[in-house]
Design brief:
Number of helices: 0
Number of strands: 11
Structural class: mainly beta
Oligomer: single chain
Length: 124
């Protein structure tokens, strides 16, 4: 599985961006597709994830109510709609895929395929 992420950019606080992650090589229906982010000097952290074959989705508390993850299986694509962006959302965002289960779906170690990352910068 290869993942290609795009859609990052620079916005002012309160603005919106939509990240796109396109998968090639076939994604198992049992996989979770997740978004993680890493800010300078910080560890990679979970943002959101969705099951490839269902509607089950999970969010980090820091983005709940502001970000929405969705998928389009026909296009092999996962989206992350980010609204009401804050300066603390500034990071490189990575999409990931893997055979996670519900209890591990927020852990980076549960994902074995990663995209190249896309920069999101939110100014105050």
């Amino acid at each position: 599985v290869q993942l290609q992420a795009c859609g990052g950019g620079s916005v002012q606080a309160g603005g919106s961006l939509r990240l796109t992650c396109t998968a090639s090589g076939g994604v198992s229906r049992n996989y979770f597709m997740g978004w993680f982010r890493q800010a300078p000097g910080k560890e990679r952290e979970f943002v959101a994830t969705i099951r490839w074959s269902g509607t089950t989705a999970y969010y980090a508390n820091s983005v709940k109510g502001r970000f929405t993850i969705s998928r389009d299986n026909a296009k092999n694509t996962v989206y992350l709609q980010m609204d009401s962006l804050k300066p603390e959302d500034t990071a490189v965002y990575y999409c990931a895929a893997g055979p996670a289960i519900q209890s591990t779906s927020t852990l980076a170690s549960a994902y074995n395929y990663w995209g190249q990352g896309t920069q999101v910068t939110v100014s105050s």
